[in-house]
Specification:
The chain is built from 15 helices and no strands. It is mainly alpha-helical and 297 residues long. The protein has one domain.
Length: 297
Amino acid sequence: MKSDTCFWAVDKVVLAYFAFAVVILLGWWSRIPEAPSLLAANLLGGALIVYSAKRPNPATWFFRNWYPLPFVGSCYKEMAFFIPAVRGTDADLALAHLDYRIWGANPTVWLERLHHPVFTEFLQLAYTLFIPAVLWVAWLLWRQQRYSQFQYYAFLIALGFLTSYIGYLLVPARGPRFLLRDLQHFPLDGLWLFHGMQGILDKLESAHYDCFPSGHTELTILAWSGSRMISKRLFRVYFAYTPCIIFATVYLRYHYTVDLLAGGATAVLLILTAPALYKRLSPTKRETLAEREAQGA
């Protein structure tokens, strides 16, 4: 039975990204801090994927289903090393100028007139719930044992994250909270949890050039699209949540509005093209293989 083991679509996408990361590491070796450990991590991650594909059993089957989510997180962290080494500059000024040309003002500065601690607290909470919102759809599909749909959703989310990372490398930007800090008339203020939530996110994200495209916009739209597989009720919940988090990205000074447009366009492109790509990259009789692996074949 093991002779028919093969790589899933998500395996091929993640392995391709690991190969891309190795090229970056070797090409800019002397300029990337922690290059040896990053190379080892990418090679180890690739080896784990290959091993799990060739040794199907209940443990590797669980790993193959869930590994894309933590793996794309680790890929995000290494972008903080790649971008300064490869690019050496940022696009913040160009993005801010484009925003100003579109609106005739800096959106984050203009939105100060809407500031209220309750509103700020609410939007910071919505922004902070980004990862749980993406993972919740995956968890519900898994709990309902809808493995085929779960695997497609994992592929879509992994593809969305990795696509955004390429965007970060092509158009590196840290966001208006850094570039336009001196133009803001006052710092944002919330109620009880605002500063704590913002502080945690700053520690996780402040060293990253992760604005263009807006991953929060892109991945939330993908999660909203995926929520249709669960129920109409959940789809309506995500329909209400999605505009909140998109607005929060600008109100909270994390993103330029052109980041949101790029993130939304990327999400729409992936929603339209991912089904065909998934089918093309998937092995034949894939569901039968998944069932065999779940049983320890």
